[in-house]
Design a protein that fits this description.
With about 280 residues, the chain is mainly α. It contains 7 helices and 5 strands. The radius of gyration is 34 Å and the shape is flat.
Amino acid sequence: LIGAMMLSFYCGVMVGFAAARCPSLPAQNSDQDTSKTESSAAAEKPTSRIEPGGARPRFPRSVSTFARGAAIVDRKEFLEQYDTGYAPGLSEDHFAKDVLIIYQHKDSLPVARREAAMTQKEGLPKLNPELALENCDVMNVFATKPMYGMRQCLALVGQMESHHIGRYMRINWNAGSPINHSLPLVKVGRGQMPNGNDEFRPPHIKAIEKNWESLAKYFETQPKVLKELGEILTKMTGQKPHFLGKKKKSVVVMVSNYGQSELLVNFVCNAQAKKLDTSH
């Protein structure tokens, strides 16, 4: 009885396997298969889209999420129109007299020069700041200039918005050697220089001790400096200043390097242009 049951179970399993087996397909010509595969692949291959008017787009579809068109604007007009913090008169460069605008959305393109900005029908249109940015609700400003004539590139990556700039150099960071074109690009910090020096390396113990000495000198001379400052303010206002307690008017004392003095003057001029009182 047991043997008969085992034989019945085995036969049932084999019948199930036979029923589940896929039927074989009829043989086809191999040349015909190849041609169908190639034609199918050609049909699926994306082609460059043609914009209205028969002109090709300025940027390919593969970057259309962050580059839909471009235009240029006079640099001086742009910096005078928008308070970017960059002084218009500094770093004058004959080859940087214009600002490159990249439109990242189809609705941000200027109405009057929409086709010129988004297609290759003509060169980049040069517009005034108002016209170029009339449809931009958000504008990110990025300042760049290759240091020391380096062969520098910019990479725009379609990704979530970031205000961090990734920096890469062909350099041996651990050895502190200068740029070597045979080396791969590696991520470096903001203080990395082309000659291999890193201006933002953690200081050595001797440098730390020297800074402690400077800090001690600051605290030792602070009462004397405040007294001298009080005498100057008394002559200016006719009132004795109070460094502690209730404050009626504030005086901001800033230390600036001579090389950054133009930026300080630009700050004061900009505040006065906005009718901000800087007299006190």
